[in-house]
Each structure stands twice: as structure tokens, then as C-alpha cells.
């Protein structure tokens, strides 16, 4: 059998397995929730699956830090070697954006990168979306029925429908499965908090570096530049929102895509999507870190007009 024929046979077999899996491995209708779902409550505080996953990521980062620094060696090996390779590559990349502030921003930006990366990948673990708690469903099914007894005989009313158990779910009727794991990046509360943290960070260094003159980038009386400054001020306020929505949109869209494809074809078809989402999770963590560093570099740079004015003054003094 030639190589081309063998490849065609393998593709046909994989397609056949994928189609057949739709009938034998059907997992029920896909369940997608935009908001993070509550797992349990501590007092009046609700612990969602996104928050629970974030706590697990915190534990993973702390344990990883302890393993790497427990017995550090001059010639790294094992876990220390892998972590140093990743962090050194990230450090060199961020240093090219802002060499002056790399040492001051490195702890925060590197932590954001590692936290977002691990949280995105943790949500892709097998069984992450199928293992959880059964909670009472908030959706109430109903049916139209004709009243046969009582003073309202003959009228049509909306009556509760009989609960039916889902044969593809381990939860009983009138309950839904709330998975333990959900990437924090699919929760707008988390992404907005992260975007706001980044925003406060580079605004702080902008004021600390340029002083009150930092506001001259946005508010000035230099003709047309005054209107440009207002536009820049509006775009500055949009930065944390853009950071939050970019991260949320990409990761949440991946979760929905995997849920839909698993519903349509449980085997074979979702596998390349999982690989793609691993790549997307890495890229989104890297993009968030790079944008935080880029915004820091922009915030700490003097206004273009002020910069040229300084250069002109220095040139006149030298002349």
C-alpha cells in the first residue's frame, strides 16, 4: 500500500470514528454560562468556579516557586532549568520594550503572565467541564394546560411541566452540573480587575516619572493639540476596558467553541481545537504582559512637543 493510499485510509477511518462517536458518546446539549457559576457560599460570600480555579492557580504558583528556589543551583537542572528558560525569554522580550523600567515592572508583569497562562491552561484539563456539583436549576419549564376542575374550569393556564431527568448527565432532574474548574479569564470580574490593576500601575509610574506634567499630554492649550489631548485622554480611559475584553473574549470564545464541537462530534474533531486553545492561552497571557509593558513605556515618555522643545533648548544653549 502506497503512502498516499495509506493516508487516505487513515483519514477515512478517523472521519468514520468521529461521525459514529456522535451517536455513542453524546453528552447532551452544550451548557454555556457567561457569568461564573456559584459552587458554595462561606457566610454571605459566594465562591464561584472561576474564583475556585484562581485559588488553585495561586497554590500552583506558590508550590512552583518553592520547588524552584528550594535548592537553587548555579547550573540549573530540572524544574529550575525550565522556569529559568521561560522567565529569561520573557525578561529579554519585555526589556526591549522599556529597558529603563524593566526591573521595576518585572515582578508584576511576570506574575500576570504566569497567572493568566496557568489559569487558561488549567481550564483545558480533561474532565474540567464535566466534574462538578449538582445545583438546583434556575430554569423552570412550563406547559399550557386547560383547567378541568374548580371555578376556573375551561380556562388555559401556565402550569409547571413534569421534570425530566437528562440521561446524559449524572445530575438528577431539576438540577444542572456546575463544573469545579472554569478559567478565571472567562469571568469579566477577573479580567476587569486585572485590567484595572495594570491601568493603576502604569498611571502611577507616569505621574511618578513626569510629575504633574503628565497631565499635559491630555490637557493643554496648544491649538489643535488640545483636541488631540482630549482624544488621547479618552483612549487612556478605554485601555483597562480593552485589556479586559480582549482577554475575556478570546478565552471565553474558545470555551464555547470546544463545548459546541464536543456536542457535535465528541471524538477527533475537538482534539486540534484543544491544541489551538493551548496556543491561544499562551498568546493571550503574553499579549496582556506586553501591552502592560507597552502602556508603561508610553505613560513614562514625555510628550512629543515637550521632548522636541527640550531638544531645541539644549541645541540653542550649546550654540
Residues in β-strands, percent: 5-15%
Task: Report the biggest beta sheet as strand number plus sense, adding barrel if it closes.
Answer: 2 strands, antiparallel
Average pLDDT rating: 78
Rg for CA atoms: 27 Å
Strand order of the largest sheet: 1-2
Number of domains: 1
Structural class: mainly alpha
- In DSSP terms, counting alpha (H) and pi (I) runs of 4 or more, how many helices? 8
Report the helical percentage.
Answer: 55-70%
Shape: globular
Count of DSSP E strands? 6
Q: Poorly predicted ranges (pLDDT <50, ≥5 residues)?
A: 163-168, 307-319
H-E order: HEEHHHEEEEHHHH
Distance between the termini: 84 Å
Please give a structural write-up.
Residues 163-168 and 307-319 have low confidence and may be disordered. Helix 2 crosses helix 4, helix 5 (188-210) packs parallel to helix 7 (270-299) and helix 6 (224-264) runs antiparallel to helix 7. The protein has one domain (20-136, 174-310). It is mainly α and 319 residues long. The protein has eight helices and six strands. Strands 1-2 form a two-stranded antiparallel ribbon. It has helices spanning 3-24, 49-70, 78-97, 102-122, 188-210, 224-264, 270-299, 304-318; strands at residues 38-42, 45-48, 132-136, 142-146, 156-160, 175-179.
Amino acid at each position: 500500500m502506497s503512502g498516499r493510499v495509506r493516508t487516505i485510509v487513515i483519514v477515512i477511518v478517523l472521519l468514520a470514528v468521529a461521525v459514529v462517536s456522535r451517536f455513542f458518546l453524546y453528552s447532551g446539549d452544550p451548557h454555556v454560562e457567561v457569568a461564573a457559576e456559584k459552587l458554595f457560599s462561606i457566610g454571605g460570600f459566594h465562591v464561584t468556579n472561576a474564583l475556585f480555579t484562581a485559588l488553585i492557580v495561586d497554590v500552583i504558583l506558590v508550590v512552583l516557586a518553592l520547588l524552584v528556589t528550594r535548592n537553587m543551583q548555579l547550573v540549573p537542572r530540572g524544574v529550575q532549568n525550565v522556569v529559568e528558560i521561560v522567565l529569561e525569554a520573557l525578561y529579554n522580550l519585555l526589556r526591549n520594550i522599556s529597558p529603563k523600567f524593566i526591573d521595576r515592572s518585572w515582578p508584576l508583569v511576570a506574575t500576570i503572565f504566569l497567572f493568566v497562562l496557568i489559569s487558561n491552561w488549567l481550564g483545558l484539563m480533561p474532565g474540567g467541564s464535566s466534574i462538578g456539583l449538582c445545583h438546583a436549576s434556575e430554569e423552570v419549564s412550563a406547559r399550557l394546560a386547560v383547567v378541568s376542575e374548580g371555578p376556573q374550569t375551561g380556562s388555559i393556564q401556565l402550569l409547571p411541566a413534569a421534570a425530566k431527568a437528562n440521561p446524559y448527565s449524572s445530575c438528577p432532574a431539576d438540577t444542572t452540573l456546575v463544573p469545579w474548574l472554569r478559567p478565571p479569564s472567562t469571568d469579566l470580574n477577573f479580567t476587569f480587575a486585572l485590567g484595572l490593576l495594570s491601568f493603576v500601575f502604569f498611571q502611577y509610574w507616569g505621574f511618578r516619572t513626569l510629575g504633574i506634567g503628565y497631565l499635559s499630554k491630555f490637557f493643554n492649550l496648544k491649538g489643535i493639540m488640545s483636541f488631540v489631548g482630549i482624544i488621547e485622554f479618552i483612549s487612556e480611559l478605554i485601555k483597562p476596558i480593552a485589556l479586559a475584553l480582549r482577554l475575556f473574549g478570546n478565552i471565553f470564545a474558545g470555551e464555547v467553541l470546544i463545548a459546541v464541537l464536543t456536542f457535535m462530534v465528541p471524538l477527533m474533531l475537538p482534539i486540534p481545537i484543544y491544541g489551538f486553545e493551548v496556543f491561544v492561552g499562551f498568546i493571550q497571557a503574553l499579549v496582556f504582559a506586553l501591552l502592560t509593558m507597552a502602556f508603561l513605556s508610553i505613560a513614562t515618555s514625555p510628550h512629543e512637543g515637550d521632548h522636541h522643545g527640550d531638544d531645541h533648548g539644549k541645541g540653542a544653549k550649546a550654540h
